[in-house]
Structures are given as C-alpha cells and as structure tokens.
Write a structure and sequence with these properties.
By secondary structure, the protein is an alpha+beta fold. It has a domain of 37 residues: Irregular (30s Ribosomal Protein S14, Chain N), CATH 4.10.830.10. Helix content is 18%, strand content 7%. A two-stranded antiparallel sheet has the order 1-2. 7% of the residues are buried. Bound molecules: zinc ion.
Amino acid sequence: MVKKKQQKGGTKQKGKKVPKGTKQRQCRICRARRGIIHRYGLHICRRCFREQAESMGFKKY
Ligand SMILES: [Zn+2]
C-alpha cells in the first residue's frame, strides 16, 4: 500500500505567490525585508547599510 499525499490548495496559501527557498530578498544581516537596498549588490536594509557604510568605505551625506 502506497499512500499518496496530493493536496492541492492547502490552507497555507492565501493567493499570493510566496517564493520558497533561499532566494528571498532580505537583509543579509538582520534579515529584514523592509527598506532593502539592492544598489551595489549589497542587499542589506537601510539600518544595516548605515552601519556597514563606514566600514565599506561609503561616506555619510
Ligand atoms: Zn538589516
């Protein structure tokens, strides 16, 4: 006997397409998903950017 679990449309789906895996765009440091800066391939949020900016050579404006 082989039990096949085929459930389409689970209770976790709410209509939005949520990408699975590690390709979620979020801050590499604090893993926040708000205010992510993709410039220069940083992929970090604004708050962490300010902290990293000095060590990375960016000057404050
Ligand atoms: Zn961050």
